[in-house]
């Protein structure tokens, strides 16, 4: 009986040990599953970071190419201006040398003439003035009377006719990014404004400018954004005083806005949906109409003056 008891005790101990080992095996498998799940998450995060790095590298490459092209253009412009300056200096030098030679020649001939006059005891003749030019007398009705060398300008009268025009600027916006209340009417620049308290990402947005049948498109870079309350000016490539200082100032490459009397400007998001619209129209103003700059109307006067001279 004692032998049987020992065997039972040994069997119970072995069963408990096997149960404990199975529990440890389950715990180890669970831990392995957790580690495998964590590894999958880390791999996904690594792939996301790698894609982000690749996007940043592409963006850096695009920005570098843009900077290099602008730098090349600036260098070419500087070289062109240097060549023009050197050519102007050469022309100026040639003209100065010619002037000095002519002055010396005139002085020599004048001394020779004065010597001959002194030798022959001649009275020097009055020098002709370039202002003693015969002119034709004319009546008020436009008929000519003849040539006289002592005709003089006695009076002038003029009449003027004035036509007033104004450029009316109106804009609408679906969101916080809108066109500024003042826009250039000569196609030099366009201003947009972020009226919200949040930074707005305009990556991939597009500006469409249409003026009298001419269309110009400008696309913002993928990383472009406007800070709260900030203004951004998009300049034509040939505009005087333009500057490229993102995000406040952007200069288009090889593009210009066309001036016109009927201008429509659209701001499209990355999906091509209209977010803001601005129209600039030239209107003829009736006489006696007052202008208020706060209303968005800017007046320009076109004055034609007819001047008639009376000779006697």
TrEMBL record:
Annotated localization: Nucleus
GO CC aspect terms: intermediate filament; nuclear lamina
Signal peptide coordinates: none
Chief place of localization: nucleus
Pfam families: Filament, LTD
SUPFAM superfamilies cross-referenced by the UniProt entry: Intermediate filament protein, coiled coil region, Lamin A/C globular tail domain
Record-linked PANTHER family: LAMIN DM0-RELATED
UniProt name for this protein: Uncharacterized protein
Species for this entry: Schistosoma mattheei
């Amino acid at each position: 009986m004692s032998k049987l008891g020992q065997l039972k005790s040994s069997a119970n101990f072995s069963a408990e040990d096997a149960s404990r080992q199975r529990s440890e095996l389950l715990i180890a498998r669970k831990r392995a599953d957790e580690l495998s799940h964590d590894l999958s998450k880390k791999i996904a995060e690594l792939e996301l970071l790698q894609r982000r790095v690749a996007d940043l590298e592409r963006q850096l490459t695009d920005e570098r190419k843009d900077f290099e092209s602008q730098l090349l253009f600036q260098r070419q412009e500087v070289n062109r201006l240097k060549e023009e300056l050197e050519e102007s200096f050469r022309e100026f030098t040639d003209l100065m040398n010619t002037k000095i030679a002519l002055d010396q020649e005139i002085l020599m001939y004048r001394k020779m003439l004065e010597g001959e006059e002194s030798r022959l005891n001649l009275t020097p003749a009055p020098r002709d003035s370039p202002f003693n030019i015969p002119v034709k007398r004319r009546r008020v009705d436009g008929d000519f009377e003849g040539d006289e060398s002592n005709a003089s300008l006695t009076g002038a009268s003029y009449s003027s006719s004035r036509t007033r025009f104004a450029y009316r600027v109106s804009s609408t916006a679906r969101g916080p990014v809108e066109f500024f209340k003042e826009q250039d009417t000569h196609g030099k620049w366009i201003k947009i404004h972020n009226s919200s308290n949040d930074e707005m990402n305009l990556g991939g947005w597009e500006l469409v400018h249409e003026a009298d049948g001419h269309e110009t498109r400008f696309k913002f870079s993928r990383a472009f954004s406007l800070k709260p309350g900030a203004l951004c000016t998009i300049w034509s490539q040939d505009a005087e005083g333009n500057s490229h200082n993102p995000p406040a100032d952007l200069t288009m490459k090889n593009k210009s806005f066309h001036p016109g009397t009927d201008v429509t400007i659209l701001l499209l998001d990355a999906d091509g949906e209209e977010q803001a619209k601005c129209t600039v129209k030239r209107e003829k103003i009736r006489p006696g109409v007052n202008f208020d700059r706060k209303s968005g109307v800017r007046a320009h006067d076109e004055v034609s003056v007819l001047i008639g001279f009376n000779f006697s």
